[in-house]
């Protein structure tokens, strides 16, 4: 459906940092919900954009990032299995927390005619939140489905969802509530 875009933020992730296992525990249910949402949105023409950290690898490309994170020894491999990018998906590698900072995301969204963004991924209280803040400043309407985002702790997740609702007027209802107009 023209006007919408699904952003999957940092779910292609090796989780190779302290407490990566904590994030995996909350990211797996979110990944399942994102996969269901993507499956529902794709047939109606909503493009999917993977907005992913470049992990400081300035010479890598998205396929290399996917391969590294999908490796059998990667803690995040189950996430990649659930959300493996398809050939018609888009991707943007980001060097910072926000998907907009120093990336072509704004231009891509313009070319796609997106006015409403459905933000999903990890970590809600860091990269998803930074991307949401920048998206709001660029005038996008925001959906951040509560079942499609994860943080290391329930407290961070709850506080971030409340702040997104209160400060950015983001719709944070569960993904099954998303209806496209």
Automatic annotation (TrEMBL):
CDD domains per the UniProt record, alphabetical: cysteine_hydrolases
Name of protein: Cysteine hydrolase
Keywords per UniProt: Hydrolase
Entries under Pfam families matching the protein: Isochorismatase
Superkingdom of origin organism: Bacteria
InterPro entries found in the cross-reference section: Isochorismatase-like_dom, Isochorismatase-like_hydrls, Isochorismatase-like_sf
Organism: Lysobacter arvi
Molecular function via GO: hydrolase activity
The enzyme's E.C. designation: 3.-.-.-
Domain Isochorismatase-like span(s) in chain numbering: 5-167
């Amino acid at each position: 459906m023209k006007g919408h875009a699904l952003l999957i933020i940092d779910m292609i992730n090796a989780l190779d940092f302290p407490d990566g296992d904590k994030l995996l525990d909350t990211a797996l249910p979110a990944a399942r919900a994102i996969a269901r949402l993507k499956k529902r949105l794709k047939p109606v023409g909503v493009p999917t954009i993977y907005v992913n950290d470049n992990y400081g690898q300035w010479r890598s490309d998205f396929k290399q990032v996917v391969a590294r994170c999908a490796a059998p020894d990667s803690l995040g491999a189950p996430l990649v299995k659930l959300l493996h990018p398809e050939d018609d998906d888009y991707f943007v590698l980001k060097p910072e927390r926000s998907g907009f900072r120093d990336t072509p995301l704004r231009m891509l969204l313009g070319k796609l005619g997106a006015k409403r963004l459905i933000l999903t991924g990890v970590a809600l209280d860091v990269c998803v939140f930074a991307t949401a803040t920048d998206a709001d400043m660029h005038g996008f309407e925001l959906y951040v489905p509560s079942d499609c985002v994860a943080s290391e702790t329930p407290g961070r997740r709850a506080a971030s969802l409340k702040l997104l609702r209160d400060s950015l007027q983001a719709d944070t209802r569960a993904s099954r509530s998303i209806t496209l107009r």
